Queue: 2 jobs
Job 1
Amino acid sequence: MARMTMIEAIRNAHDIAMDRDSRVVVFGEDVGYFGGVFRCTAGLQKKYGPHRCFDAPINESGIVGAGIGMAAYGLKPVVEIQFADYMYPAYDQIVSEAARLRNRSAGDFTCSMVIRMPTGGGIFGGQTHSQSPEALFTHVSGLKVVVPSNPRDAKGLLLAAIEDPDPVVFLEPKRLYNGPFDGHHDRPVVPWKNHELGDVSEDYYTVDLGKAKIRRAGEAVTVLAYGTMVYVAEAAAEEAGVDAEILDLRTLLPVDLDAIEASVKKTGRCVIVHEATKTSGFGAELSALVQESCFYHLEAPIVRVTGWDTPYPHAQEWTYFPGPDRIKRAFTQVLEG
Amino acid sequence: MTAPRPLALHVPEPGCRPGDTPDFSDFEIPRAGEVRRPDVTEAPEDMRDMAFSVVRVLNKAGEAVGPWAGTLDADALREGLRHMMLLRQFDERMLKAQRQGKTSFYVQNLGEEAVACAFRMALDDGDMNFPTYRQAGLLIAGGYPMTDMMNQIYSNAADPLKGRQLPVMYSSRAHGFFSVSGNLGTQFIQAVGWAMASAISHDTRIAAAWIGDGSTSENDFHAAMVFASTYQAPVILNIVNNQWAISTFQGMAKGKAVTFAARGHGFGIPAIRVDGNDYLAVHAVASWAVERARSGLGPTLIEHVTYRAGGHSTSDDPSAYRSKEEGSAWPLGDPIERLKLHLITIGEWSEDRHVQAQAQIVDEVRAAQREAESHGTLISGPHPSPRDMFDEVYAEMPPHLARQRQEAGY
């Protein structure tokens, strides 16, 4: 066991996967010699050579498209899109190609690849370095969509994603790379080395895709969250003194409906939190699922706390970011409304 | 100082529209045998001329001439002729089947048979093509069962793709034919990735990418060129310039470039133009590129100059946008007629044998069609079970999909 940041845990997962399986190759912009702008792949090229970990031209469609070809060949590519905001040129390759290859060829060709990309704001990244595009992927049959919230899960989920026979979009909340973040931007960040979820086994292990985790047990209200919002919800529950049950979804597609149902049926109330814009966001899907399966158990309307339906504004980042205060208001709404 | 004049946009137009007389006089065609054959090790910068000419082997008299001749013996040439005749007959039957309402859609290879058929013969088993919807010749020449192609076209109970894909979007890993996508150009970069993987794995297999003239304007064409050039991937990048992208003439994708092949130059990729209606020339150029790729010398770009003699698909009426006479005015002729003439010229074929071969091919295709139709057609069925629809979305069916399958009643 060692204390690791999420960056170190992700790097460790790459290292273990590459060591265990010579078919695993890692490529993307700046990931080779330099080790990635967030350093998630640092040292891999030195250890495994430039055939296993290498830089790619600045062409996201090319990175994913070449990855699909490699996966079709039988390698297991792990590609990095430097920021999720840059994935749009690769969207066609991800959605029309990677996601459907198995189905359209009736299993003749498959696409076991991982597409990693840092997501989310809270780092003054402006419109083009802050987006959370998960809903653009959860709408796509054939993809799996994963969002880790801590180093321990990040490693286990990434190793599971690499092992998965299907394409996995792996969204890394960059605000969590160095420590958990509770939404109070004026407080110093507690680094992972002071957090129990920074305790990461150095051995090989996986965290099952499709399984949520109860991060905080409670009876009064269920909070459905993932990524950074898990900590913001925790802070809100502590500060408001609300006995909230916080579910860290971890995998958004396929989502753990059993865990969601069990929790909402227990609490009778549901708050959904995400950083992405509200309209047609993943919260809409969660809300519909809860309504479909838990309607007769609900004691209050479902409330969504999300980013606003605007581009992520550089100067107004903390107005955009769904902080603890907005979640506290949502608690009031579902508990007293 | 004079006031600036208003600017005007240049929108390219083909030289010939319905009612006009086709004129290919601007199309510079070198004589057969005229274009040099560089050594495969020649530096790309020393063979730039190859992108502005057209490699041709068969002359008007049906003789194979020049430095690109001699890659195939008489048996191989007869086999090539048979592949092209099979493909044409296959097209004819499937076109008719679509007109008879047995399927929704079909895409002919008419006029372009030599391109895929000859290219396939230059590859080894195990090499991988990333084709478009107009390279059925790769399957025919590769010995893929014609009945399975028909089953796919009919989306019937025996369709290898379980009724999931549009007709002609075949897939066969075993026959080196990657699953065809309807999204244009995406396969071009995937082919480069496959070739990179082969190199990473120290394998000996190579990849061939295929794209039409129109789709070269897609971003993924350029992605493929950058990646192929950067990593010197063992891939052959084929542009099939058949002059038309549905109703859009090739000049629209080419812009002010002189040829599509010249696109290779900015990337340091050797580029060759070949007469796509000349089976021998296509085979010779393909073999040259295969040798380069397999020797670790990197990618080659080939522009196959040909003509789409049929419509874009059964949903297209070419007489609405191009002259009806254009096909017959096409100066590179018909690939089947040219190879047939060559075989007769060298004393390895005759009119009688041709008639006999044609009759056998008609029987063969008819028999395949009968067998395919015994498994159903799109309209009459039987079809794959709707239960299959939910399979292979993922390797293992996730719970939400299992619930939906149950809801659907399967």
Job 2
Amino acid sequence: MYINPNEILETIQMVRMEHLDIRTVTMGISLRDCCHPDIEIFNENIYEKITSRAKDLVRTTNEIQSLYGIPIINRRISVTPIAIVAESCKSQDFVSVAQTMDEAAKDAGVDFIGGFSALVHKGETRGDHKLINSIPEALASTEKVCSSVNVATTKAGINMDAVGLMGNIIKKTAELTADRDGIGCAKLVVFANAPEDNPFMAGAFHGIGEPECVINVGVSGPGVVNAAVRELENPNLTEISETIKKTAFKITRMGEMVGKEVSRRLGVEFGILDLSLAPTPEIGDSVAAILEAMGLERCGAHGTTAALALLNDAVKKGGAMASSSVGGLSGAFIPVSEDAGMIEAVKVGALSLEKLEAMTSVCSVGLDMIAVPGDTSAATLSAIIADEMAIGVINKKTTAVRIIPAPGKRVGDSVEFGGLLGSAPIMSLSKFSSETFIKRGGRIPAPIQSLTN
Amino acid sequence: MTSSRFIITVIGSDRVGIVARVTTVMASYSVNIVDISQTIMQGIFTMIMLAEAPKENFDLTAFQQAMDAEGKSLGVEVKVQHEDAFRFMHRI
């Protein structure tokens, strides 16, 4: 097949100028064969399994990065939700499991390990409860461990007891990492309809329907999409959609090629390709900038939800055409702290939490990396989670909340996390209380699947 | 990855000797040129080569480092990437 010089230069430009990258190669590892009532033996088992499975992951991804000349930003591991595999451990808490995961991740040389997780959408077991209560200390005493809790699904409804509990857990996590602006909360996500094969942190875990070991790849390229949209001369929205679709196709092909080659070399099954426009704090690598390229003065102006819906749908269409293994979250992420354009939009008052919430009904995840005042009550945090879970459950989509009540900070301040996590201005919240509503607990029943109005 | 063919791109400002010096490094690693095209785009020197590496005992990392170093001393950017990176991306 003839290779077109223009295509060669286009690819090189995407990588050099527009931040096209493979955001993450994530090895999913089942820990189901590691169970043991003695937590020390359990910890030895999981350490052994994680480090032996992942021993060649970093070396292999480095080789492929240089073979193709496409940067691979993060190497990660996801494991079976710990609440499930540690259920039989006779121990009061699971903090030592998180520390073992941290050690295994460090020894394997990966950036993050996900799966300190529980699925409690319909109710909690004792193991789930122990895990959730271990989260604050687990996240404060580790560096690479990420935690997620699924509290709602469209089939089960919303477990409001768990939602109520998570408000407190987030508060405690922030307090225990107060010296670092509450960074523990950046590694904790609360889900509705959590996907089992998502390679993006903090929500990655190796679902119980997954194989023994699998390679999932997350591709990202908001800068590439932004450049493509900005290149159009006075386009209408149909043309913009078409351009995004074509660009998403190309980005996805790149991810599929890398994923297949990594899995071939490691002798591990190829799982899914998650095509998500995941921004970074770098200028030019912003989802907000794409929305603004469509003609909005600032992200957050009226019309932003429609623009995001167009973007998300076009990304999925392009990705679905390019690969038969598209999965995970796939769409556009709108984390505030990680996106230069979103940070700016909040600073100038164009983007409020209410508008963000509306946007989450059409984006791929939800309220992501949002910093709020440190004195926010646990009930208010739970109420924000409940709203977001309701959007996911009713719309049969994944939604999540990753929120940071930054200790000691008020509206007007900002927090600084550095690296991919970026920085975030503190956003204002409703002054009115949700306490009685959250205290009621119980379960919000699953929604009816017909009469969809 | 099915072949041992690479796309080599050289991008930078034009000067005497770029082609000679880059191809000398290639020859020392027994890398053969299959196809070559060179153009000046908006004043920027752009050379694209399809090259074939030896099937056995070829040290890609060392070759990439040598090409990168030669590029730096010439003031141009040299990239060596497997051809699949370009074949896969734009087509079904």
